[in-house]
Amino acid sequence: MKITYYGHSCVVVEEGGRSVIIDPFLSGNPASGIAPADIRVDAVLLTHGHSDHFGDALEIAKANDCPIVAVFELAEFCRKKGAKTFAMNIGGQQQFDGFKVKYTLAFHSSAVQDGDALIYAGEPAGILLTMGGKTFFHAGDTALFGDMRLIGEMNQIDAAALPIGDVLTMGPDDALLAAKWLRADRVIPVHYNTFPAINQNSTLFCDRLHQEGIEGHALKPGESIEI
């Protein structure tokens, strides 16, 4: 499994000729390092509807003739905008061609902007993505919550993307505890330094992970790890 980071909370995960993108906030983020037109994937996976995660989902899905996988209300919004969709909800899982998706709890909020309107987009979520026998957990935007222990107990998590920005999500201290509860072998910090309110030192966070026996990968946009 290859995981490539494209800034903020966006990652592309590839394995066995299949590829998915999670939370494709690209054109609105000058630090992403890639344009939506350059993305080639088999599915777009969304954790929630906020613009810094929903991003270019519609454009990418239509260009690739692939589905947007999202919580029901957000999937319905995308369907009405002309995209192929697959609706899911918290606790559900689905085997697709070459990858499996399971939605988990996340403690945050979720709405999608449609012109001047802010539309409820269902519950926010985390994503357990399994490809080629490896499992990647994208926590989405979330606070620390106790059931992260349960997620870690029930799944062998090979790598996790955890927000560290604070203010709008958990910060480094809570993310460090989340990494331990999840029993993740590797952690990629996300959702930080995109704008001043969420500036954090990802190198220091990864040093703290190392002290707990966890590999930390403070990836720059365009950089990858393979697991």
TrEMBL record:
Keywords: Hydrolase. One of its GO terms (molecular function) is hydrolase activity. The keyword Iron-sulfur does not apply. It catalyses: 3',5'-cyclic CMP + H2O = CMP + H(+); 3',5'-cyclic UMP + H2O = UMP + H(+). Coiled coil: none annotated. It comes from the Bacteria. Gene3D superfamilies: Ribonuclease Z/Hydroxyacylglutathione hydrolase-like (3.60.15.10). Residues 7-191 form the Metallo-beta-lactamase domain. Counteracts the endogenous Pycsar antiviral defense system. Phosphodiesterase that enables metal-dependent hydrolysis of host cyclic nucleotide Pycsar defense signals such as cCMP and cUMP. Belongs to the UPF0173 family. This is UPF0173 metal-dependent hydrolase BK138_29260. It comes from Paenibacillus rhizosphaerae.
